[in-house]
Amino acid sequence: MNCILMNLKKIIEAKDFKEADEIVYKTPRKKKDGKYTNYFRNFKFFYEKLYEKEASELNNFAKIFLSNCEVIEIRSWQVEQAIMMFNSLNSKGLPLSDADIISGQLYSNVDNDKKSEFNERWKSIKEESKKLDDLKITDIDGVLQQFMYINRSKNKDYVRENSVDVTTPGLRRYYTEISKDLLKDPFELCKSLSKITQIWDKIKEYPAIKLLLKFNVNAKLFLMSYLYRYKVEEIDETKVVEICECLLRLFALLEIGDAGYSNTKFKTFLFSENLKFVDESVSIEDIKEDFDKHISENWKEEDVKEEILEYRKNLLVFLNEYIFCKEKSLRFDFDENVNIEHVMPVGSRNKSSIQQDAGVDKDEFDDLVNKLGNKILLEEEINKSLGDAWFRTKKQKSVKEKAGYRDSKYAIARELTNYHKDTWTKEDIEAATTEASERILSFVFNKNSKKKHTL
How confident is the model at residue 452 (pLDDT cuts 50, 70, 90)? Predict the structure, then answer.
Protein backbone atom coordinates (compact mmCIF):
# COMPACT_ATOMS: atom_id res chain seq x y z
CA MET A 1 0.00 0.00 0.00
CA ASN A 2 2.86 2.39 0.83
CA CYS A 3 4.24 2.08 -2.74
CA ILE A 4 0.76 2.78 -4.15
CA LEU A 5 0.41 5.99 -2.12
CA MET A 6 3.90 7.15 -3.05
CA ASN A 7 3.24 6.64 -6.78
CA LEU A 8 -0.14 8.38 -6.62
CA LYS A 9 1.49 11.32 -4.81
CA LYS A 10 4.17 11.57 -7.50
CA ILE A 11 1.58 11.54 -10.29
CA ILE A 12 -0.57 14.18 -8.63
CA GLU A 13 2.34 16.50 -7.79
CA ALA A 14 4.11 16.25 -11.18
CA LYS A 15 3.92 19.47 -13.23
CA ASP A 16 3.34 17.59 -16.48
CA PHE A 17 3.12 14.09 -17.94
CA LYS A 18 6.84 13.95 -18.79
CA GLU A 19 7.85 14.62 -15.20
CA ALA A 20 5.36 12.07 -13.89
CA ASP A 21 6.74 9.47 -16.33
CA GLU A 22 10.30 10.13 -15.11
CA ILE A 23 9.68 9.89 -11.36
CA VAL A 24 7.16 7.06 -10.94
CA TYR A 25 8.25 3.52 -10.07
CA LYS A 26 8.99 1.22 -13.00
CA THR A 27 9.39 -2.53 -12.91
CA PRO A 28 13.01 -3.47 -13.79
CA ARG A 29 13.66 -5.26 -17.11
CA LYS A 30 10.11 -4.69 -18.33
CA LYS A 31 9.48 -2.89 -21.61
CA LYS A 32 6.89 -0.46 -22.92
CA ASP A 33 3.73 -0.23 -20.78
CA GLY A 34 4.68 -3.43 -18.95
CA LYS A 35 7.18 -1.46 -16.87
CA TYR A 36 4.46 0.75 -15.33
CA THR A 37 2.22 0.02 -12.36
CA ASN A 38 -1.51 -0.41 -13.01
CA TYR A 39 -2.08 3.03 -11.53
CA PHE A 40 0.25 4.80 -13.93
CA ARG A 41 -1.12 2.81 -16.88
CA ASN A 42 -4.61 4.01 -15.96
CA PHE A 43 -3.34 7.59 -15.66
CA LYS A 44 -1.52 7.27 -19.01
CA PHE A 45 -4.64 5.86 -20.68
CA PHE A 46 -6.81 8.85 -19.67
CA TYR A 47 -4.03 11.34 -20.35
CA GLU A 48 -3.62 10.09 -23.92
CA LYS A 49 -7.39 10.02 -24.45
CA LEU A 50 -7.91 13.57 -23.19
CA TYR A 51 -4.68 15.28 -24.30
CA GLU A 52 -5.91 16.25 -27.78
CA LYS A 53 -9.38 17.34 -26.64
CA GLU A 54 -10.53 20.94 -26.86
CA ALA A 55 -11.29 22.90 -23.70
CA SER A 56 -15.04 22.65 -24.30
CA GLU A 57 -14.77 18.85 -24.72
CA LEU A 58 -12.76 18.53 -21.52
CA ASN A 59 -15.32 20.65 -19.69
CA ASN A 60 -18.14 18.45 -20.99
CA PHE A 61 -16.23 15.28 -19.99
CA ALA A 62 -15.66 16.64 -16.47
CA LYS A 63 -19.37 17.43 -16.05
CA ILE A 64 -20.45 13.97 -17.19
CA PHE A 65 -17.78 12.29 -15.09
CA LEU A 66 -18.66 14.18 -11.93
CA SER A 67 -22.39 13.75 -12.42
CA ASN A 68 -22.01 9.98 -12.68
CA CYS A 69 -19.32 9.43 -10.07
CA GLU A 70 -19.10 10.20 -6.40
CA VAL A 71 -15.70 11.19 -5.06
CA ILE A 72 -15.22 10.65 -1.34
CA GLU A 73 -12.12 11.80 0.50
CA ILE A 74 -11.19 9.72 3.53
CA ARG A 75 -8.46 10.91 5.85
CA SER A 76 -6.74 9.11 8.69
CA TRP A 77 -3.80 10.15 10.82
CA GLN A 78 -3.14 6.58 11.97
CA VAL A 79 -1.38 4.37 9.43
CA GLU A 80 -2.81 1.14 10.83
CA GLN A 81 -6.33 2.52 10.59
CA ALA A 82 -5.67 3.71 7.03
CA ILE A 83 -4.54 0.22 6.05
CA MET A 84 -7.67 -1.33 7.54
CA MET A 85 -9.89 1.12 5.66
CA PHE A 86 -7.98 0.51 2.43
CA ASN A 87 -8.36 -3.26 2.83
CA SER A 88 -12.07 -2.91 3.52
CA LEU A 89 -12.68 -0.65 0.51
CA ASN A 90 -10.54 -2.78 -1.75
CA SER A 91 -12.53 -5.90 -0.86
CA LYS A 92 -15.18 -4.68 -3.31
CA GLY A 93 -12.67 -4.73 -6.16
CA LEU A 94 -9.61 -6.81 -7.01
CA PRO A 95 -8.72 -8.69 -3.80
CA LEU A 96 -5.34 -8.12 -2.24
CA SER A 97 -3.09 -11.13 -1.82
CA ASP A 98 -2.14 -12.36 1.64
CA ALA A 99 1.36 -11.00 1.04
CA ASP A 100 -0.09 -7.52 0.25
CA ILE A 101 -2.05 -7.48 3.50
CA ILE A 102 0.89 -8.70 5.55
CA SER A 103 3.34 -6.26 3.99
CA GLY A 104 0.94 -3.39 4.71
CA GLN A 105 0.74 -4.42 8.34
CA LEU A 106 4.52 -4.73 8.52
CA TYR A 107 4.97 -1.29 6.99
CA SER A 108 2.75 0.26 9.63
CA ASN A 109 5.10 -1.08 12.31
CA VAL A 110 8.26 0.39 10.76
CA ASP A 111 9.71 3.60 12.19
CA ASN A 112 9.35 6.53 9.81
CA ASP A 113 13.09 6.90 9.32
CA LYS A 114 13.39 3.24 8.27
CA LYS A 115 10.43 2.90 5.92
CA SER A 116 12.58 3.26 2.80
CA GLU A 117 14.90 0.53 4.06
CA PHE A 118 11.90 -1.73 4.68
CA ASN A 119 10.55 -1.03 1.20
CA GLU A 120 13.84 -2.13 -0.34
CA ARG A 121 13.97 -5.32 1.71
CA TRP A 122 10.40 -6.27 0.92
CA LYS A 123 10.94 -5.46 -2.75
CA SER A 124 13.97 -7.76 -2.79
CA ILE A 125 11.97 -10.62 -1.21
CA LYS A 126 9.19 -10.18 -3.78
CA GLU A 127 11.65 -10.11 -6.68
CA GLU A 128 13.42 -13.28 -5.49
CA SER A 129 10.07 -14.96 -4.95
CA LYS A 130 8.99 -13.94 -8.45
CA LYS A 131 12.08 -15.63 -9.92
CA LEU A 132 11.27 -18.80 -7.98
CA ASP A 133 7.64 -18.58 -9.09
CA ASP A 134 8.75 -18.35 -12.73
CA LEU A 135 10.54 -21.68 -12.15
CA LYS A 136 7.34 -23.10 -10.59
CA ILE A 137 9.04 -23.56 -7.21
CA THR A 138 7.27 -21.13 -4.89
CA ASP A 139 5.81 -17.62 -4.75
CA ILE A 140 5.73 -14.98 -2.03
CA ASP A 141 2.63 -16.49 -0.40
CA GLY A 142 4.38 -19.87 -0.50
CA VAL A 143 7.40 -18.41 1.29
CA LEU A 144 5.11 -17.00 3.97
CA GLN A 145 3.39 -20.37 4.30
CA GLN A 146 6.71 -22.19 4.68
CA PHE A 147 7.79 -19.84 7.46
CA MET A 148 4.40 -20.35 9.12
CA TYR A 149 5.03 -24.11 9.19
CA ILE A 150 8.51 -23.53 10.61
CA ASN A 151 7.30 -21.15 13.31
CA ARG A 152 4.30 -23.26 14.30
CA SER A 153 6.55 -26.32 14.67
CA LYS A 154 9.16 -24.46 16.69
CA ASN A 155 6.47 -23.18 19.04
CA LYS A 156 4.63 -26.55 19.05
CA ASP A 157 1.45 -24.60 18.29
CA TYR A 158 -0.48 -27.64 17.08
CA VAL A 159 0.51 -30.13 19.77
CA ARG A 160 -2.51 -31.35 21.76
CA GLU A 161 -1.44 -33.56 24.70
CA ASN A 162 -0.34 -36.80 22.98
CA SER A 163 -1.52 -35.89 19.49
CA VAL A 164 -1.19 -33.21 16.85
CA ASP A 165 -3.88 -31.04 15.30
CA VAL A 166 -3.29 -30.92 11.54
CA THR A 167 -5.74 -28.07 11.00
CA THR A 168 -3.82 -25.21 9.41
CA PRO A 169 -4.93 -21.56 9.64
CA GLY A 170 -4.99 -19.31 6.61
CA LEU A 171 -1.94 -17.12 6.05
CA ARG A 172 -3.74 -13.85 6.66
CA ARG A 173 -5.29 -15.02 9.90
CA TYR A 174 -2.05 -16.56 11.13
CA TYR A 175 0.08 -13.44 10.64
CA THR A 176 -2.48 -10.76 11.50
CA GLU A 177 -4.34 -12.49 14.35
CA ILE A 178 -2.83 -15.70 15.72
CA SER A 179 0.86 -14.72 15.60
CA LYS A 180 0.63 -10.99 15.10
CA ASP A 181 3.70 -10.51 17.30
CA LEU A 182 5.72 -11.57 14.24
CA LEU A 183 4.69 -8.29 12.60
CA LYS A 184 6.08 -6.20 15.45
CA ASP A 185 9.62 -6.73 14.18
CA PRO A 186 9.34 -6.26 10.41
CA PHE A 187 13.07 -6.52 9.73
CA GLU A 188 13.41 -9.79 11.63
CA LEU A 189 10.55 -11.33 9.67
CA CYS A 190 12.05 -10.04 6.42
CA LYS A 191 15.33 -11.69 7.40
CA SER A 192 13.55 -15.03 7.90
CA LEU A 193 11.65 -14.81 4.61
CA SER A 194 14.80 -13.78 2.76
CA LYS A 195 16.62 -16.80 4.16
CA ILE A 196 13.95 -19.10 2.71
CA THR A 197 14.30 -17.55 -0.76
CA GLN A 198 18.09 -17.86 -0.53
CA ILE A 199 17.85 -21.54 0.39
CA TRP A 200 15.54 -22.21 -2.55
CA ASP A 201 17.86 -20.33 -4.87
CA LYS A 202 20.77 -22.51 -3.75
CA ILE A 203 19.01 -25.88 -4.01
CA LYS A 204 16.62 -25.32 -6.92
CA GLU A 205 18.77 -27.14 -9.49
CA TYR A 206 19.64 -30.13 -7.32
CA PRO A 207 18.24 -33.23 -9.10
CA ALA A 208 16.80 -34.64 -5.86
CA ILE A 209 14.87 -31.39 -5.37
CA LYS A 210 13.50 -31.46 -8.91
CA LEU A 211 12.39 -35.05 -8.40
CA LEU A 212 10.76 -34.43 -5.00
CA LEU A 213 8.81 -31.42 -6.26
CA LYS A 214 7.26 -33.56 -9.00
CA PHE A 215 5.66 -35.80 -6.39
CA ASN A 216 3.64 -33.47 -4.16
CA VAL A 217 3.59 -29.72 -3.52
CA ASN A 218 3.27 -30.28 0.24
CA ALA A 219 6.81 -31.68 0.26
CA LYS A 220 8.09 -28.08 0.07
CA LEU A 221 6.72 -27.26 3.51
CA PHE A 222 8.54 -30.05 5.31
CA LEU A 223 11.69 -29.85 3.24
CA MET A 224 12.12 -26.16 4.10
CA SER A 225 11.37 -26.79 7.78
CA TYR A 226 14.37 -29.10 7.92
CA LEU A 227 16.78 -27.05 5.78
CA TYR A 228 15.97 -23.86 7.70
CA ARG A 229 17.96 -25.22 10.65
CA TYR A 230 21.16 -24.60 8.66
CA LYS A 231 22.87 -21.43 7.58
CA VAL A 232 22.54 -21.00 3.82
CA GLU A 233 26.27 -21.51 3.29
CA GLU A 234 26.18 -24.77 5.28
CA ILE A 235 23.68 -26.42 2.95
CA ASP A 236 25.12 -28.80 0.38
CA GLU A 237 23.73 -31.48 -1.89
CA THR A 238 24.47 -34.28 0.59
CA LYS A 239 22.29 -32.69 3.29
CA VAL A 240 19.54 -32.05 0.75
CA VAL A 241 19.56 -35.60 -0.62
CA GLU A 242 19.28 -37.12 2.86
CA ILE A 243 16.06 -35.32 3.72
CA CYS A 244 14.70 -35.53 0.17
CA GLU A 245 14.99 -39.32 0.18
CA CYS A 246 13.04 -39.57 3.45
CA LEU A 247 10.22 -37.55 1.91
CA LEU A 248 10.46 -39.33 -1.44
CA ARG A 249 9.94 -42.70 0.24
CA LEU A 250 6.72 -41.52 1.87
CA PHE A 251 5.38 -39.64 -1.15
CA ALA A 252 6.09 -42.66 -3.37
CA LEU A 253 3.69 -44.59 -1.16
CA LEU A 254 1.16 -41.78 -1.54
CA GLU A 255 1.55 -42.00 -5.33
CA ILE A 256 0.83 -45.70 -5.63
CA GLY A 257 -1.87 -46.07 -2.97
CA ASP A 258 -5.53 -45.09 -2.73
CA ALA A 259 -5.22 -42.94 0.41
CA GLY A 260 -4.95 -39.17 0.04
CA TYR A 261 -2.48 -36.75 1.61
CA SER A 262 -4.92 -35.99 4.46
CA ASN A 263 -4.75 -39.61 5.63
CA THR A 264 -3.12 -39.93 9.05
CA LYS A 265 -0.33 -42.07 7.57
CA PHE A 266 0.83 -39.02 5.65
CA LYS A 267 -0.29 -35.64 6.97
CA THR A 268 -0.44 -36.49 10.68
CA PHE A 269 2.92 -38.23 10.56
CA LEU A 270 4.56 -35.34 8.70
CA PHE A 271 3.16 -32.77 11.12
CA SER A 272 4.55 -34.79 14.02
CA GLU A 273 7.89 -35.22 12.32
CA ASN A 274 8.07 -31.52 11.48
CA LEU A 275 8.55 -30.87 15.19
CA LYS A 276 11.84 -32.74 14.81
CA PHE A 277 12.71 -31.19 11.45
CA VAL A 278 12.97 -27.75 13.06
CA ASP A 279 14.81 -29.06 16.12
CA GLU A 280 18.57 -28.81 15.53
CA SER A 281 19.24 -31.32 18.32
CA VAL A 282 17.48 -34.06 16.32
CA SER A 283 19.88 -35.66 13.86
CA ILE A 284 19.09 -36.76 10.34
CA GLU A 285 19.80 -40.34 11.45
CA ASP A 286 17.02 -40.08 14.03
CA ILE A 287 14.69 -38.73 11.36
CA LYS A 288 15.58 -41.59 9.00
CA GLU A 289 14.81 -44.09 11.75
CA ASP A 290 11.41 -42.45 12.28
CA PHE A 291 10.59 -42.87 8.59
CA ASP A 292 11.84 -46.47 8.64
CA LYS A 293 9.65 -47.30 11.61
CA HIS A 294 6.59 -45.48 10.33
CA ILE A 295 6.74 -47.13 6.90
CA SER A 296 7.44 -50.63 8.19
CA GLU A 297 4.58 -50.40 10.72
CA ASN A 298 1.98 -49.03 8.30
CA TRP A 299 2.69 -50.82 5.02
CA LYS A 300 3.31 -54.43 4.06
CA GLU A 301 6.00 -55.08 1.48
CA GLU A 302 3.94 -57.59 -0.47
CA ASP A 303 1.04 -55.11 -0.77
CA VAL A 304 3.32 -52.31 -1.92
CA LYS A 305 4.99 -54.56 -4.47
CA GLU A 306 1.61 -55.55 -5.87
CA GLU A 307 0.61 -51.89 -6.19
CA ILE A 308 3.84 -51.09 -8.07
CA LEU A 309 3.29 -54.03 -10.42
CA GLU A 310 -0.19 -52.67 -11.16
CA TYR A 311 1.01 -49.06 -11.49
CA ARG A 312 0.21 -47.46 -14.88
CA LYS A 313 1.04 -43.78 -14.37
CA ASN A 314 4.36 -42.01 -15.03
CA LEU A 315 5.76 -40.52 -11.83
CA LEU A 316 7.48 -43.71 -10.67
CA VAL A 317 9.37 -43.80 -13.98
CA PHE A 318 11.41 -40.86 -12.65
CA LEU A 319 11.94 -42.55 -9.29
CA ASN A 320 13.01 -45.77 -10.99
CA GLU A 321 15.63 -43.86 -12.99
CA TYR A 322 16.83 -42.09 -9.82
CA ILE A 323 17.29 -45.34 -7.86
CA PHE A 324 18.90 -47.08 -10.84
CA CYS A 325 21.49 -44.30 -11.06
CA LYS A 326 22.03 -44.47 -7.31
CA GLU A 327 22.69 -48.22 -7.52
CA LYS A 328 25.16 -47.76 -10.37
CA SER A 329 26.83 -44.69 -8.80
CA LEU A 330 25.77 -42.61 -11.80
CA ARG A 331 24.75 -38.97 -11.82
CA PHE A 332 20.98 -38.52 -12.02
CA ASP A 333 19.29 -35.50 -13.53
CA PHE A 334 16.50 -34.71 -15.96
CA ASP A 335 15.36 -31.85 -18.14
CA GLU A 336 11.96 -30.26 -17.70
CA ASN A 337 11.01 -31.31 -21.23
CA VAL A 338 12.05 -34.95 -20.73
CA ASN A 339 9.67 -37.44 -22.31
CA ILE A 340 8.33 -40.79 -21.17
CA GLU A 341 9.40 -43.30 -23.81
CA HIS A 342 7.46 -46.52 -24.31
CA VAL A 343 10.00 -49.14 -25.33
CA MET A 344 7.19 -51.09 -26.96
CA PRO A 345 5.37 -48.27 -28.79
CA VAL A 346 1.87 -47.31 -27.61
CA GLY A 347 0.42 -46.21 -30.91
CA SER A 348 1.94 -47.40 -34.11
CA ARG A 349 1.24 -48.00 -37.77
CA ASN A 350 2.89 -51.38 -37.18
CA LYS A 351 0.80 -52.07 -34.08
CA SER A 352 -0.45 -55.46 -35.22
CA SER A 353 3.06 -56.58 -36.21
CA ILE A 354 4.49 -55.38 -32.89
CA GLN A 355 1.75 -57.20 -31.00
CA GLN A 356 2.54 -60.37 -32.88
CA ASP A 357 6.28 -59.90 -32.33
CA ALA A 358 5.67 -59.35 -28.60
CA GLY A 359 3.39 -62.33 -28.29
CA VAL A 360 0.33 -60.44 -27.03
CA ASP A 361 -3.22 -60.00 -28.30
CA LYS A 362 -4.86 -56.63 -28.79
CA ASP A 363 -6.92 -56.88 -25.60
CA GLU A 364 -3.91 -57.01 -23.29
CA PHE A 365 -1.65 -54.78 -25.38
CA ASP A 366 -2.84 -51.41 -24.03
CA ASP A 367 -2.39 -52.55 -20.45
CA LEU A 368 0.98 -54.12 -21.12
CA VAL A 369 2.61 -51.11 -22.80
CA ASN A 370 1.75 -48.87 -19.84
CA LYS A 371 3.46 -51.04 -17.25
CA LEU A 372 6.38 -49.49 -15.40
CA GLY A 373 8.90 -51.81 -17.05
CA ASN A 374 7.99 -50.56 -20.52
CA LYS A 375 8.65 -46.89 -19.69
CA ILE A 376 11.93 -45.01 -19.52
CA LEU A 377 13.07 -41.39 -19.56
CA LEU A 378 14.33 -40.10 -22.91
CA GLU A 379 15.26 -36.78 -24.49
CA GLU A 380 12.20 -35.05 -25.95
CA GLU A 381 13.52 -34.46 -29.46
CA ILE A 382 14.66 -38.08 -29.72
CA ASN A 383 11.45 -39.55 -28.43
CA LYS A 384 9.43 -37.58 -30.97
CA SER A 385 11.58 -38.77 -33.87
CA LEU A 386 11.56 -42.44 -32.88
CA GLY A 387 7.89 -42.93 -33.64
CA ASP A 388 7.13 -46.62 -34.03
CA ALA A 389 10.73 -47.78 -34.47
CA TRP A 390 11.44 -51.41 -33.64
CA PHE A 391 13.41 -52.20 -30.49
CA ARG A 392 16.36 -53.58 -32.45
CA THR A 393 16.67 -50.19 -34.16
CA LYS A 394 16.37 -48.22 -30.93
CA LYS A 395 19.10 -50.18 -29.17
CA GLN A 396 21.53 -49.86 -32.06
CA LYS A 397 21.05 -46.22 -33.07
CA SER A 398 22.32 -43.13 -31.26
CA VAL A 399 20.57 -40.10 -29.83
CA LYS A 400 22.96 -38.06 -31.95
CA GLU A 401 21.15 -39.46 -34.97
CA LYS A 402 17.81 -38.95 -33.18
CA ALA A 403 17.21 -42.61 -33.89
CA GLY A 404 17.90 -44.58 -30.73
CA TYR A 405 18.96 -44.90 -27.11
CA ARG A 406 22.74 -44.98 -27.51
CA ASP A 407 24.51 -41.93 -25.97
CA SER A 408 21.34 -40.85 -24.13
CA LYS A 409 21.85 -38.86 -20.92
CA TYR A 410 19.39 -41.23 -19.21
CA ALA A 411 20.98 -44.30 -17.66
CA ILE A 412 18.28 -46.92 -18.27
CA ALA A 413 18.03 -45.92 -21.94
CA ARG A 414 21.81 -46.38 -22.28
CA GLU A 415 21.61 -49.72 -20.46
CA LEU A 416 19.06 -50.99 -22.97
CA THR A 417 21.58 -50.62 -25.80
CA ASN A 418 23.41 -53.58 -24.23
CA TYR A 419 20.29 -55.70 -23.85
CA HIS A 420 20.87 -59.36 -24.63
CA LYS A 421 18.05 -59.54 -27.19
CA ASP A 422 16.99 -57.58 -30.26
CA THR A 423 13.30 -58.02 -29.48
CA TRP A 424 11.21 -56.57 -26.67
CA THR A 425 8.36 -58.90 -25.78
CA LYS A 426 5.70 -59.36 -23.14
CA GLU A 427 8.17 -61.40 -21.05
CA ASP A 428 10.76 -58.60 -21.25
CA ILE A 429 8.25 -55.98 -20.08
CA GLU A 430 7.10 -58.15 -17.19
CA ALA A 431 10.69 -58.88 -16.17
CA ALA A 432 11.61 -55.18 -16.30
CA THR A 433 8.47 -54.31 -14.31
CA THR A 434 9.37 -56.84 -11.62
CA GLU A 435 12.91 -55.47 -11.54
CA ALA A 436 11.63 -51.89 -11.16
CA SER A 437 9.18 -52.90 -8.43
CA GLU A 438 11.96 -54.59 -6.43
CA ARG A 439 14.18 -51.57 -6.90
CA ILE A 440 11.52 -49.14 -5.66
CA LEU A 441 10.45 -51.49 -2.87
CA SER A 442 14.02 -51.68 -1.60
CA PHE A 443 14.26 -47.90 -1.65
CA VAL A 444 10.94 -47.26 0.06
CA PHE A 445 11.62 -49.75 2.88
CA ASN A 446 15.27 -48.64 3.06
CA LYS A 447 16.70 -52.12 2.68
CA ASN A 448 20.06 -50.67 1.64
CA SER A 449 20.60 -53.63 -0.66
CA LYS A 450 24.04 -53.77 -2.28
CA LYS A 451 22.83 -56.22 -4.89
CA LYS A 452 23.49 -55.10 -8.44
CA HIS A 453 20.44 -55.34 -10.63
CA THR A 454 20.29 -55.99 -14.34
CA LEU A 455 17.55 -55.22 -16.76
Answer: very low
Whether residues 142 and 107 share a domain: the answer is yes
pLDDT for 58 equals 82
Could you tell me if residue 90 is inside a domain? no
Task: Look at 414 and 29; give whichever has higher pLDDT.
Answer: 414
Is residue 89 included in any domain, yes or no?
A: no
Helices vs. strands in the chain: H and E counts, helices first: 23, 4
pLDDT in tens, 73-96: 666 666 556 666 666 665 555 566
pLDDT in tens, 322-381: 999 999 999 999 999 999 999 998 866 667 777 776 677 777 888 899 999 999 999 988
Other Cβ atoms closer than 10 A to 258 = 7
The answer on 324 and 295 residing in a single domain is no
Same domain? 248 vs 284: yes
pTM of structure: 0.79
Q: Are strands 339-342 and 375-378 parallel, antiparallel or unpaired?
A: antiparallel
Q: Which domain holds residue 51?
A: 2-71
Reference 308, options 362, 375, 245; nearest CA is 375
Strands (E), 174-260: none
Q: Where are the alpha helices (DSSP H) in 268-386?
A: 269-277, 284-298, 301-309, 315-327, 351-358, 362-369, 380-386
Domain boundary among 54, 71, 88: 71
How many domains would you assign to the chain? Answer: 3
351 and 425 assigned to the same domain: yes
> What is the DSSP track for 319-351?
HHHHHHHHHTT------TT-EEEESS-SS-TTH
Nearest to 433 by CA among 450, 412, 418: 412
Fill in the amino acid letter for 283: S
What residue type is assigned to position 316 of the chain? L
Q: How many Å apart are CA 267 and CA 239, to the nearest integer?
A: 23
* Whether residues 152 and 272 fall in one domain: yes
